[in-house]
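Researcher: Please predict.
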Amino acid sequence: MAEPPASAVPLAGSGPAGQTVAMTSLAPQDHEDIRQLLARYNVAIDLGHIANWVDCFTADGVFECLGLPDGSPLGGRHAGADALRAYAETHFSIHKGRARHWNWNLLVDGVGDDRATMTSYLNAHTAGQGDSAVLRATGIYRDELARTAAGWRFASRQVAIDPA
């Protein structure tokens, strides 16, 4: 069986180099708050609400998109508020409000009192009717979340786009 690429982030519940980390139970409200964070993230990036999207991350948050062709303006690693803002501006300039991100099969695990991991599936669509509505990509998100004074935020969000 082939090993996953070195750039792949382990599933929720796994630590560096596949080490198991201690999972803790999250309260039902934590699960709901994390689902709401995910919804705010998707709506903000799709509709071009740049500041709201950046606010979904911690101040030093990281977004990384793997699996796009080399040189793609939407690929790569974007760390910190300024880089996240630039990424979201580029995303909106390309998709003009017609992107629709859908996530499901949310696997959320607590890691200590104020940290969590989440793994979820991605479907990315172009909005429209008939032939103009297109499924553009599928993939898997692997996230590290932190509870902050403002609520749950993404400390790290990595999406691996599935190969064609």
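Model: The CA atoms of residues 29 and 35 lie 10 Å apart.
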